[in-house]
Design goal:
mainly alpha; 4 helices
């Protein structure tokens, strides 16, 4: 199990405040938080096959508007019209 340091928690707090400000301006940036946590897990030696790490990588792509989830959502949306 990986535990975040005080410094990492402080960094996440700053990133969250920035993501909230970005969201108010219509900018997507929450994905940066997911990516950062995933990077920390990888740096701590978490296997790439780890479920939490894979979820974070998927959430990064989805929140960034990329990847398989984005493609599936676009396809479903077009099919609903």
């Amino acid at each position: 199990m990986t535990t975040l340091t005080t410094e990492q928690l402080a960094q996440l707090s700053v990133m969250r405040a920035q993501a909230q400000a970005d969201a108010a301006a219509g900018i997507k940036s929450y994905y940066k938080i997911y990516a950062q946590i995933a990077d920390w897990l990888e740096a701590a030696g978490t296997p790439l096959t780890d479920t939490a790490l894979r979820w974070l990588r998927g959430a990064t792509q989805a929140n960034k508007g990329e990847g398989a989830i984005k493609i599936a959502n676009d396809t479903q949306w077009k099919g609903a019209a």
